[in-house]
Amino acid sequence: MHCAAHYMDDYYVILPDMEALRRLAYEIIHRFEAVGIAVNKRKCKLVPLTKPFRFCKAKFTLGENGKITVNGNRDGMKIANRKLNYFHREYEAGNRSLADAEEYLRSQCAYYENYDDHGRILHLRRRYYAKFGGATSCTGSSIPKPGIASV
Question: pTM score > 0.85 for this model?
Fold first, then answer.
């Protein structure tokens, strides 16, 4: 076996031969069912590594040079944008402090730092700075600060 791992009740196995993988998948399902563990066969997939695949809401892609790129859940960006809008409304109404919004931004950036998602981190920071721009400094962003020339 080239590689195998699991997280909670999700498993993956990597083998160089697809036919051997099919046999192994059949054997795994057979053994799970023999001890009374229900297996949803519709969720069991055989995916060649040449195609991107998802595991635990992360997208794995094999590059040309053999490097594996892992991207976090893209649906999280929609949720983060909505929540930043919510924090901005609450901040303007005086119901939340700026520290609450900064803490939320740090937690979202920490999630995407675990993956190869630098672009998503920059996007979140730009969104935050656009909403709360005058209230805080724009640290770590690629957006130049007003009055500073970029070369």
Answer: no
